[in-house]
Each structure stands twice: as C-alpha cells, then as structure tokens.
C-alpha cells in the first residue's frame, strides 16, 4: 500500500504499549466512576475526562507506524483491543489488518461491518487482497471482486489458487519491467516518469515482447554504469528465479543463502508473472521456526495469547488426547509388574527416574535432529553415522549418570543388585531414547509429515513405557 | 567481500549434496581397493581413478555459490568435510568461513595453517574480520592487525569491543555518504565514479562536515526525482537509526516490523559510524528462534550434527544433570508414600498418568508464554489475565480428561473412590502446570535470564514431583 516513512522515536515499543494500557485503564476507571455516581453533574465530568482520554489515545495511535499499532493490538486482551481498534483511523484499517497475526485478525474482522471491510480492502494490492480474502465474509469478497478490473481480478484468482505456502501465494505483482535493447539513460528517464517505485525494488526485470524474462538489471549496476550502455550489456542474464508452485520455505532459504532482496517468479514458459520480496520471506522464516517450536510441544497453531478459553482448548486437545493414550499405555506396562512392585516397593519410587532421564535425553536428541532436518542437513547418506553418534552419547550418559543413580539407589535401599539393575535400565532406556529420537522425525518425514509434529509427546511416550518396561522387567528377572 | 552473481540451477541443494556424497564414496572405495591389492599396477589404476574423482568433485565445488559449499560442509561428517574443504579454491576460503555455522567453522580453522588463515582473512572487511577474530589463533590475529591500515584497525577494535549480540558487533562499515547541499545530479555522477556500490545499498547516508547524520536518501527517491533537486529537499530527515550498544535482536525486530533493508548506526553525538543490513538481521532472526528451541529442550547451543561425542556430551550434560536431581526429588516424593503403595499397588501404575499429562499440558503453556515473551507481548499489565485464562483451560482439561481417566481407573480397579481421587489429582496437577508454566518463564525473565532456558526440564520437574505428591497424598488421605 502507500509508503509510510518510518520515524525513529526514542521510546521502545514496550514503553508505547505501556502508555496505551495506562490510558485504557484510566478510561475504565472513569467509566466505573460515572457508572457508580449517577448524578447528572458527575456524569458530565466523567464524559469530559472520558473524551479527553480517548483523544489522547487516538493521537498516540496516529503517531505510530501500522506495524506498531498491530503489535499493540496483539498484546491487548479482546475488549481493550477492540476499543483501540475503533480509535484507529479508517484509512489505516487495511494496513493494520495485513500486519496482525491471523488469530488476532479474525477478532478484528469480526468487529467490522461489511461497509468498513470494503473500504479497508479497496486500497489493497491484488496479492494483499488474496491474503485477506479467505477470512472475509463471502459477500464482501464477491463485491470486492466485482469492483476490480480484469487484470487485478485475474491476479487475485491466481494467488488464491495456490497453497498458502507456495510461491504463487506469496508473490506480489509490483514489478518494474524494461526491455534489453534500450540504454540505461532511457531506463533512468522511464523511472523518473513513474514518480514512485514499488517497495524493495533492488532490481528491474528485463523482459522481451512476450513477457519472457531475459534477465535482471540490479539498481546498483544501473547507477554505476555509463548511461550510454545498453541494458543487455549490463544486466545479469541468468538470475535466481522461482516458479509459482515451488515451496515458499525453499524460496526463503534461497533468499537467506544468497542475500536476495527481490527475485522474479516465472511460469513454465519463462514468462515473468510476479516477484518475491525479502519482507515476505522474513515473515516466513519467523513463522517456520515458530511452527516448529509449537508443533514440537503439541500445539496445533500459533495462539493469540488472549484467545478465548474454548479456542485454546481446541488448539491443545489433539495432542493432550494422544498423550492420555500413551500415558495409559505406560500405566498398563506398570500394571504388568504390579506383583513385583508389591514385593519390592522401592521399584515404584525408582522407576520414574529411569523414565524421566530417558525423556529428557530423547528430547535433546529429537530437537537436534528436527533442527538439522529443517536445515536440510540430514540425508540418507549420513543417517547411520548420526545414529552411531547419538547411541555413543547415550551409552556414555547411561554408564556415567546411570552409575551415579545406581550408587544412590544402593545407599538408599542397601541393595547392590538393585543399583546394578538401575544402572543397566538407565543405559538401555537412554539407548532407546537415542534410537527413537533419530527414527521418529525421520519416519514422519518419510511419511510426508512435519518431523516436528508432536515430537516431544511421542518421544516421551516411548521413553516412559520403554523405561518402565526395561526397569521393571530387569528387576523382576534379577531381583525377585 | 566480492559480489558473486547467483545463478539458478535446476538442481536442488539436496541433489547437489547427494552428488558430492556420491563422489566422496566412490573415492573411498577406490582408496580401499588400492589398499587391498598392493601390486604396482593396480596402484597406478587406483591413483588414476582417484585423481579423476577429485577433479570432478573440484569442478562441482567451483560451480557452487559459497553459501552452498558452506551448506555441504555442514552436512558432511568431519573426515569427508575436510576432504571437501581441501578441494575448495584458496581464494574462496574466507567467504565460506563466514558462511558456515560456528561449530563447523571451528573444525575448518583447526585444519588450516597460519599461512592459509592469513590469506583467507586478508580479503575480509573490518566487520567480517571482527566476526572471525575470536576463533583465530592469537598470532594470526596479531599479524592481521599489523597489516591493516589505521582506520581498518580501529574498526576491528571497535567491533570487537561489543558483545556478539550488540548492534556495534553486527554493523558493517560499507556506507556511501553524501552531503545535503548538492543536487541529485551530482550524487548520480558521484555514484558512477564509485564503480561499485556495497551490497544492500537501498539508501545513501546524508552527513554534515562533522560526520553527523542529517538524513537518508533512499535510492528510490534518487531515481524518481528531478536531478536538479537538492538532496536536502528529497531526503528523509528523521530515519530509523540505531546505537552501537543497542541489542541486536531489538534491531532485528525493527527491521522486520518496518521492512528495512539497511539502517544507519550513530553514536551518542549523532555521528554516523556504521550501518546494519537485512542479511545480518535475517541471520539473527533465524538464530534467535533456533536458540529458543534448543534452550527449551535443555541444549546449551547449536550442535554440529557431526560434532564429536565428547562435544555433544558437554552440550547436553548441564541440563541432564539438573534433570537427574529433579528426577531424584520426584523419586523421594514417591518414597514418602511407599507405605501407601504397598497397601494399594494400583497407585504405582496410575501415578505416571497424573504426572505425564501435567507435563504435557505444562509444556504447551510454557511454550506459548515463551513465544509471546520473545515477541514482547507479555507485560506486567496483562499477566494476571493470562494466568486466569491458563487456569481456566487447565480446569476444564482436568475435569474432562481427568474424568475420563477416573472412569477408566474405576473400570480397571473397580473402585469408585480411586476414580474420584484420580480425577481430582489430574485437575490439581494441571492447575499447577498452568501456574508454573506462566510463572517460570516470567521469573527467569525478571532475573535477567533467558525465559526459554531449560523451560521444558523445569516444568516437567514441577509436574512430576507435584503430580506424585498430589495423587499419592490424596490417595493416602481418602483411600487408606
């Protein structure tokens, strides 16, 4: 949308958030007061203070960059969020909607009527419209599409036809294209006539008459070369380009690796159809690592921290339910050995140590493997080597820490054989943790799933049931 | 360093890695063969094939971007990594050293002699030298500093005087500065004389005669405005700028928020001393989320997946040791109730369910809070509201899932009261998990620590010991 000049303020974002919260609280106090003292006079005073507060708050918001307003909206509980949202100038609605997280956006859209939504959406570019469309009411989308010209409508349709994570859904259409048979002087004059260049324009796209990409002209080269030269002499003729059906995460890695600012997107025939820019890629990099953290812990998606209790429950139930089943299995494993525990109750006290250390060690392994897989560092060629290393680490940990715990068990219960069983069980469970810590994410990946998905829940399940079985089994054989 | 033109190949990075591994394996087979058949003839054949393989591998590497070679080095086990490293052309050593991860860089530097290191480092800019210096042998650094001119040496010293995460250590010195009282035409001519612009130049820095930053001139504006205009008319006079002692992560967030490509760094007096660029910031964003994942799982730092076993152990021991102590505490909690378990052995089988579900739910909460804290969304103003929400979620989970497990316990052991105790213990432990899931990261942050640090280990410790105590305690009171 329009370019906003970012000004540096000395206040940190945290400070600005604190100021807004402060104003909102003062506001609430005033409302409480006017509510309590219902005399006509106090009401008028209340109204006055009320209005003063709102005016001050509105002034604060007007001074802030849209991204900062978005940040403040995300950090506020629903009720206060909507108070602030209503104070934002209508012409900034669109910008801010594009900045907030999905879950917060939903709450804001729910608060707007069709008229406001239409006004906010009308200033957006085709790619931005496509981002927002799935969350808008159907008739608003319909009306918006009607209002677009043919090319724009086509672009929105095309962007919507791709997966959220495909390049085709991430690209924008704000490209400056030039021909290769003109001089740099002509290009410079052409740019001057444009009055404004799209954001993140670090290169111009060189296309032929059919729109096929012939190369890119980095602005840097345009500036340092003799204006008499032809574009074809100066351009880079074989630039990194992407296809609309490529995975966006791969594109983001390429941006990171090759330090790109923007890159062309071409169709099967080499025709230029859009471009990717670093800002979208940065968002993607952030999202990717976030979703890794979340899915390892067994959360379905990013949560608005002030989401309703019901939404939070839905986000967390799937993996809790899985965990319930695995915990039940572990419990039945112990049930198998109830006879042994009755005879030697120390087993009940010691068994969680075996399971717990196994879980912790397994989580370390699985975290490292998931990390390496996200960076594409794990291939079939090196799996067995990785496995050997993890097993070696576990073996040493088992002998050392298992030994320590074995001695402690002896000191507590005065039985050498109990100590030895403890050490052996710890070592075996750590080996199991290493084995599964490598195999679980790899198997998930081979099944085409996200290797981080519930990784923590699953490895803990294995080390719990496994740990109980190994320890109680060994104890039953050797101690009873 | 020098600008490399990135060309698009149709092969993915994974494919290229596979090719290198393939060549390395063929290489090893040849070596094995020549070793086994020690006749003079077979030896010569072996040598020939040997050399052919190496030549092919070298050609492959020469075609690759430094970032891609770095990726391949990271994905190879030590021995093969060094074989590849020796094949890389010496003049690319510096570039590649700057691209690889810290742990891999260490292994590469250990393989180079002083002469090679000096050659690699001599082509670097001051900021790159400063990045590398802490890992180089002391006498190499000394010799390098001697070889630098006064300004460069001063820059390296200054960069080294800051923390790795401060803006002063992240900035570079490749700025194009102009005066405000010249016309755009003059600026354009000046740029042409420079022959090459530094990477990521999206704006020129406008300074006065004392070097004080007056504003920035975005290249976009330079291109679209009338060349007759003065710089002062066109520049942005109050740009986002940073101080060298600011936190790099805050700067990275500002880059993300305001979609910056580069930004000036100024000292206390407003004098321009360097600039930040988006590529460094992207690396930082990636690192930040990585270190969050790792420290939650109780890993000290990023691990070279082929790190020696000894290194891996050091990386993981600290938190394993902590876990050992917490597991021991949990074990002693159970020890307190050995009498109860002897009387009702079903308790031993059921208690891990209470602890396990608590741990899982606590991990979900703590992950979400750590995430929100990293994004600065948690402030003192909203803590209590967050806490209420988490407690409500836990209460519902406890009643629902605890209820299910209670019924299962009844069906298994035929005791209603056991089922009720189970449900109550689950609910209480989930409430404990929610409470600590919010309090642990907040307390760590208030103590100035990383809120993600070992978060997973700590929450599990609380829900284990707490879960055992609550369940066995309730059982002892109500069932025996």
Description:
Two copies of one chain form a homodimer. Chain A has 480 residues and is mostly helical. Chain A has helices at residues 13-36, 40-63, 66-74, 78-87, 93-99, 102-110, 114-122, 126-132, 138-147, 150-160, 167-170, 184-194, 219-224, 231-234, 248-258, 278-296, 309-336, 338-343, 346-374, 383-413, 416-446, 455-479; strands at residues 177-178, 203-207, 213-218, 262-266, 272-277. Chain A folds into three domains: 13-165, MgtE N-terminal domain-like (MgtE N-terminal fold, Alpha Horseshoe); 177-296, Roll (CBS-domain), CATH 3.10.580.10; 309-479, SLC41 divalent cation transporters, integral membrane domain (Tetracycline Repressor, domain 2, Orthogonal Bundle), CATH 1.10.357.20. The first copy, chain A, is 68% helix and 5% strand. In chain A, helix 3 (66-74) crosses helix 5, helix 8 crosses helix 10 (150-160) and helix 19 packs antiparallel against helix 22. The longest helix of chain A has 31 residues, at 383-413. Chains A and B meet through helix 1, helix 3, helix 12, helix 13 and helix 15 of A and helix 1, helix 3, helix 12, helix 13 and helix 15 of B.
């Amino acid at each position: 949308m329009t370019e906003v000049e970012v000004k540096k303020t000395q206040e940190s974002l945290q400070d600005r958030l604190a100021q807004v919260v402060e104003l909102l609280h003062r506001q609430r106090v005033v409302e409480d007061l006017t509510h309590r003292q219902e005399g006509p006079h106090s009401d008028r005073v209340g109204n006055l203070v009320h209005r003063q507060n709102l005016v001050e708050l509105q002034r604060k918001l007007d001074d802030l960059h849209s991204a900062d307003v978005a940040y403040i909206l995300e950090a506020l509980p629903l009720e206060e969020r909507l108070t602030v949202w209503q104070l934002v100038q209508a012409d900034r609605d669109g910008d801010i909607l594009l900045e907030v997280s999905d879950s917060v956006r939903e709450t804001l859209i729910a608060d707007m009527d069709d008229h406001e939504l239409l006004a906010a959406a009308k200033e957006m570019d085709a790619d931005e419209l496509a981002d927002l469309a799935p969350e808008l009411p159907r008739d608003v989308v319909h009306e918006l599409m009607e209002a677009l010209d043919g090319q724009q409508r086509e672009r929105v349709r095309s962007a919507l036809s791709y997966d959220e994570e495909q390049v085709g859904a991430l690209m924008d259409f704000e490209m400056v294209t030039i021909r290769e048979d003109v001089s740099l002087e002509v290009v410079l004059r052409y740019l001057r006539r444009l009055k404004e260049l799209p954001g993140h324009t670090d290169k111009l796209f060189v296309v032929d008459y059919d729109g096929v990409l012939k190369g890119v002209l980095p602005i840097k080269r345009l500036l340092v070369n003799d204006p008499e030269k032809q574009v074809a002499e100066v351009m880079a003729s074989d630039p990194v380009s992407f296809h609309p059906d490529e995975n966006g995460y791969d594109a983001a890695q390429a941006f990171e690796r090759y330090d790109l600012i923007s890159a062309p997107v071409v169709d099967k025939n080499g025709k230029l159809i859009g471009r990717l820019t670093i800002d979208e890629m940065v968002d993607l990099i952030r999202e990717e690592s976030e979703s890794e953290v979340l899915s390892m812990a067994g959360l379905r998606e990013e949560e608005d921290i002030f989401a309703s209790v019901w939404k939070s429950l839905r986000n967390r139930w799937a993996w809790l339910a899985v965990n319930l089943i695995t915990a039940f299995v572990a419990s039945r494993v112990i049930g198998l050995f109830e006879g042994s525990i009755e005879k030697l109750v120390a087993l009940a006290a010691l068994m969680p140590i075996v399971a717990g250390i196994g879980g912790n060690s397994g989580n370390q392994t699985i975290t490292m493997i998931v990390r390496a897989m996200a960076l594409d560092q794990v291939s079939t060629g090196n799996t067995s080597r990785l496995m050997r290393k993890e097993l070696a680490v576990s073996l040493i940990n088992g002998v050392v820490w298992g030994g320590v715990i074995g001695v402690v068990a002896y000191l507590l219960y005065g039985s050498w054989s109990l100590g030895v069983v403890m050490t052996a069980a710890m070592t075996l469970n750590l080996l199991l943790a290493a084995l599964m810590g490598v195999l679980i994410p790899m198997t998930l990946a081979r099944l085409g799933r996200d290797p981080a998905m519930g990784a923590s829940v699953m490895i803990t399940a294995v080390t719990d049931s496994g740990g109980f079985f190994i320890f109680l089994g060994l104890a039953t054989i050797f101690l009873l």
